[in-house]
Amino acid sequence: MFPKGTKRKFSDSGEEPVPSGEQGQPAPSAAARTLSSSYSLQRQSLLDMSLIKLQLCHMLVEPNLCRSVLIANTVRQIQEEMTQDGTWQIMTQALAAAQCPADRLVATEVLCRQTDMAAQAGQSPKPFSVVGLEEGYHSEEVVMDGDGDTEVTMSTLSTVSPQLSSASYLPGPFGMGPCWEEEEEEGECEEDEEEDSEECVSEGEEADRDHLTGDSRTGEQVFGTFEIKHPAPPPDPALEELFSDVDASYYDLDTVLTGMQSAPKMGPYDLLESLSSHGPTALSSSTSCRSDLNELDHIMEIIVGS
Amino acid sequence: MCSVHVFGGFLEWAFKTKLTDIISTVEFNHSGELLATGDKGGRVVIFQQEPESKNQPQCRGEYNVYSTFQSHEPEFDYLKSLEIEEKINKIRWLPQKNAAQFLLSTNDKTIKLWKISERDKRPEGYNLKEEDGRYRDPNTVTTLRVPVFRPMDLMVEASPRRVFANAHTYHINSISVNSDCETYLSADDLRINLWHLEITDRSFNIVDIKPANMEELTEVITAAEFHPNQCNTFVYSSSKGTIRLCDMRASALCDQHSKMFEEPEDPNNRSFFSEIISSISDVKFSHSGRYMMTRDYLSVKIWDLNMETRPVETYQVHEYLRSKLCSLYENDCIFDKFECCWNGNDSVVMTGSYNNFFRMFDRGYRQDVTLEASRENSKPRSVLKPRKVCTGGKRKKDEISVDSLDFNKKILHTAWHPLDNIIAVATTNNLYIFQDKLN
């Protein structure tokens, strides 16, 4: 009923973590329970859809800013509502439960991206949001017939924030962070969560998919975790089972970026091309990368095929 | 102007196929004699109305291709590693001052002023040149003559006279020529600039809604237009469904609006899509300058400039889509930017929809009609049959159900002749020109 990943998380952990004996104000979980399930479903799938839309790149041309702003506002609206009825906290806790190691990924990602962007732009890093937008944050779907999902993995790779002015801050398309900062309650924990969640490219669990929806409270974390470049589960049971077998290391940013480092002048456009065409030109120096890309391509074909 | 009852019957008159590229803008000039279209490939095609033929006095002249030229080329922004599309976003004609015609065409970043002129004479009888252009040996010249102009086949030349570049960081969505015929504005997502038609290396920024912190960006400019009569007044619409009217006399930077038009939201219709569907895709002043019309996703609204609190008229374009907003969000159709237009005497407004349908609303008679621009469904020279979308229950014959609508067939661009009941409707690659049935 619920979007696959999220549901499993909830059902796996049994009832919501708030003790049932709570008095007075209904616990957030209770409120969540009383919320019409179909409404929650719809809202959840809308959130997932919106996040995908924000992440998919229009590789060639600058994204449509109006569309991006409208989608981002929609996400913010959903997030606010979910915070109010407590569902957001539940997802936060679910995410906290799925801690992952691998700090190195963040560093690699940041460094690779900085190298790349610096090489392209030839300028000193600017605050993300400004750069993201003025340099064409690729938050629009690539215009391709058929399945938008095709582009998810490939395109999201280039939506990484080019610079991190603060270490753990990985804002979304417009750096949503500040808008949601006032809703933060656990400042310290969040930094850790964010780093952890970023690195959760890992382990082929459904937990990874949860990152899309099971994000912690703030907007930056929403987008930060999403930028692990894991596609959102399409609401299709067959596909979802397919994903459960997939080794999520395909989506390991590091793998692809290894190839990227050998061609520092590649722009996001080039990245897409190299991925879709098994990287004959740009990634020739990295054979292991190429085999990963072949498999990645295979996955994509399956997605498109279904 | 012809009859008030526009819906007496629209006759399919000329069907122009443009197979090359997606039409991205359509605009009649001020006399209606010329119709310009821009396409995704950066080309501008201008049609000219033939003079009425004596043989068929009841029939207005046809529109035939007058000039075709490449206005914009694709460019590459090396700093951002991004392509700049050559797609023509808008064309606006300048009022005619002499024999030549001028229009402004713009893509995402650059506006160009084009001069379209006719040449129907050429000089002949040079002393030093042969007719084919080769130079004669001066020693062979024995007599002198004065060259004369002789008629030749009409040649229409388009030449770029001004290029207004490098003034927009974001994508240009509107251009509008001022009634003073000397200045014009160009609007992108966050800024509006004022230009003088003669000066290309400077423009004044008159509106800037870019927040200091881009993370706080929640609203963008979607359209802008100068008032038809008052050269100090312009409006711009936003993605939040507001329209701001600004007076350039008030200050150099018009961030403070003089008036803000916004209709309060209907609490019954509130959904996660409320903001998206309230985003205004087009704003057009009436010819009189007393009203303005806005187009949002589901409706057309007419505003009296003297009343900011709510529109004076609201017309539902395709209310049956309200229950489909989630699907339309998924397939991105909810972000389609439909345009709208007034007829010459401001009595009828028109806008496009899906399935190659377009809608007309007669303000005086409170009537509306849905017509279809499609070769399959109407024969040339036949009267267009009104269409009906079945919203629920039993579908009558000839009605089309909401689920069978083709959302890839969208009519985003329409134009109405300024003086006559002739309309231009652009489907994806085709341009239809309809006129109403005379007599």
From TrEMBL, chain A:
Superkingdom of the source species: Eukaryota
The SERTA domain, residue ranges: 39-86
Matching Pfam families: SERTA
Single GO cellular component term: nucleus
Region spans: Disordered: 1-34, 177-217
Stretches with biased composition (Acidic residues): 180-207
Start-end of Basic and acidic residues biased regions: 208-217
Name of the protein described by the UniProt record: Cell division cycle associated 4
Species of origin: Myripristis murdjan (pinecone soldierfish)
From TrEMBL, chain B:
Keywords: Repeat, WD repeat
GO cellular component: protein phosphatase type 2A complex
Any one Gene Ontology molecular-function term assigned to this protein's record: protein phosphatase regulator activity
Family named by the database record: Belongs to the phosphatase 2A regulatory subunit B family.
Oligomer and partners: PP2A consists of a common heterodimeric core enzyme, composed of a 36 kDa catalytic subunit (subunit C) and a 65 kDa constant regulatory subunit (PR65 or subunit A), that associates with a variety of regulatory subunits.
Protein name, per record: Serine/threonine-protein phosphatase 2A 55 kDa regulatory subunit B
